[in-house]
Design brief:
Blueprint (H helix, E strand, L loop, with lengths): L6 E6 L22 H9 L1 E5 L3 H5 L20 H10 L4 E7 L28 H12 L2 E6 L12 H16 L6 E3 L6 E3 L6 E3 L4 H5 L1 H11 L4 E3 L8 E2 L14 E2 L15 E2 L2 E6 L18 H11 L5 E5 L10 H17 L9 E4 L33 E5 L8 E4 L11 E8 L2 E9 L6 E4 L19 E3 L1
Parallel strand pairs: 2-3, 2-13, 3-4, 4-5, 5-8, 9-12, 12-13, 16-20
Antiparallel strand pairs: 1-15, 1-17, 6-7, 10-11, 14-15, 16-19, 17-18
């Protein structure tokens, strides 16, 4: 493996304002994140858990006519599950409190189709509460998923359903402590039970029917720090573009006023709505299925997902489902822990710390914008140049030659996202060699795997995955 030191990074930036002598910070470009979005993006990784009636029927989408009596896990322990998520490196978890079948896993007053009609704990249980308390106990954040589509409710598609749905939102956000994220799935309408009608219902425009503008206002009034996933073009976070965890590259965290952008986003968009990559740890589906142990994704597959989501500036939510007993599948847990080991090895050594940084220019010659900010380990400091300098460069000189094959770059997203492209060169055998000319966006972060030009690289250790990295 080649030893790469020092490094040269060149970028192409958008022009913002004329140079000034006061060395004021650059003006933001396009939309900027809220403080809540900044905190959310720094989480990077959290869990999904699908656990409900579908767990007991083997379905992915329940029809809505399932009898709640089938929900009776014999060994459910929320604390044990949350502890596993935390050990796997997750900063939070989101529980599917209601999926499309309409079954509410808490004692809601909005519908009879809920946990009180199950034999579990003699109808006195509350899965949402147990997960919320377990997250608090283990020090990770709690979130919830609440399907807008309800294939059980007799009034779905009509005005009467909205009263029940709004009540469900209020209950989940009022009775279980802080909720860091609430998920609104995009599945909206189709065939279902609908109180015995057994018909197909089409709601037309989802934003208009649910009145997501009103929903967002309600959420903000109850939990202002809660990140809203989906909700038409009113939410704070968006889909990454697939259910395989991958987001597109280049990747912009901004979108237009009416949303859109998918996994790519829109350069200079009017709203900051970063993407979230979502996928399952198992190829079987979102809910647990018999025999799924043979279909678990390998740690190496999950590491590729990591680079294709977190490594492109998005967050990653990884689903690990509970089985009929209420336990996680041992095969899933094994893969999750080995995935954690790979990430620990990747981040074990940050070569940027202690390195020397110089640049072609520093904004106003003010040390608060010094290139040394790139190597101080503080995400809130940053290097900046004058506004008319569209091709600045910086050199990172390591204390001694080092072996690594990943470089992470970040922008100060509080000022928006503006980098269009960048190259990375390395000083190898007495000359500068381009080792990456395919860099496009940076944004929240980008992780680039390096391909050495010459001589041929040896395979990195740790199951063929990247070793140590340089984090700027």
């Amino acid at each position: 493996m080649n030893k790469l030191a020092p490094l040269f990074v060149g970028t192409a930036l958008s022009s913002l304002m004329l140079p000034g002598q006061a060395a004021d910070p650059p003006k933001p470009y396009g939309a900027v994140p809220t403080p809540q979005q900044v905190n959310w993006q720094r989480m990077e990784f959290y869990g999904f858990i699908h656990f409900g009636l579908n767990t007991f029927t083997g379905r992915e989408w329940g029809y809505g006519d399932e009898n709640p009596q089938i929900f009776n896990p014999t060994d459910f322990n929320a604390s044990e599950i949350v502890e596993t998520f935390k050990k796997g490196g997750m900063k939070g978890m989101i529980y599917t409190a209601k999926h499309h079948d309409g079954f509410c896993a808490w004692p809601t007053k909005s519908t009879e189709h809920n946990i009180t009609k199950t034999p579990w704990k003699n109808g006195k249980g509350d899965v949402v509460k147990e997960f919320a308390l377990a997250c608090k106990k283990h020090g990770i954040k709690f979130g919830t998923y609440l399907s807008p589509w309800d294939r059980n409710h007799a009034e779905y598609g009509k005005e009467g359903y909205l009263k029940a749905y709004y009540q469900q939102i209020r209950e989940l956000l009022s009775n279980y402590g802080p909720v860091f994220e609430i998920w609104f799935d995009g599945a909206n309408g189709g065939d279902g039970y609908y109180g015995g009608a057994r018909e197909k219902r089409n709601i037309g425009n989802a934003e208009k029917y649910y009145n997501f503008e009103k929903i967002v206002e309600m959420i903000r009034s109850i939990q202002p720090n809660c990140i809203i996933w989906g909700a038409g073009h009113y939410g704070d976070a968006r889909w990454g573009g697939s259910e395989k965890g991958h987001v597109n590259y280049p990747h912009w965290s901004t979108v237009g006023l009416n949303g859109g952008g998918g996994g790519t986003g829109k350069r200079g968009g009017e709203r900051w709505v970063p993407a979230e990559g979502d996928t399952t740890i198992n190829h079987s589906g979102w809910f647990w299925h018999q025999g799924q142990a043979s279909r678990v994704k390998s740690p190496e597959e999950l590491m590729q997902v990591w680079f294709d989501s977190v490594g492109r500036g998005a967050n990653l939510i990884l689903n690990v489902a509970a089985d009929k007993t209420g336990k996680l599948d041992p095969a899933d847990v094994k893969s999750l822990m080995e995935f954690k080991e790979l990430r620990d090895k990747l981040y074990a050594k940050n070569f940027a710390l202690g390195a020397t940084a110089t640049a072609s220019q520093t904004r106003g010659n003010d040390k608060k914008f010094s290139p040394s900010n790139m190597t101080d380990g503080n995400m809130d400091t940053y290097w900046a140049v004058e506004d008319d300098n569209l091709t600045p460069s910086a050199v990172i000189t390591l204390p001694k030659p080092a072996t690594f094959d990943v470089i992470r770059l970040r922008e100060q997203i509080r000022l928006g996202q503006r980098v269009d492209s960048f190259n990375i060169d390395a000083f190898i055998k007495g000359k500068w060699v381009c080792i990456d000319n395919g860099g496009k966006t940076i944004g929240n972060q980008v992780m680039r795997r390096l391909t050495a030009p010459s001589p041929p690289r040896t395979a990195p250790a740790h199951h063929g995955q990247p070793g140590n990295a340089l984090h700027l």
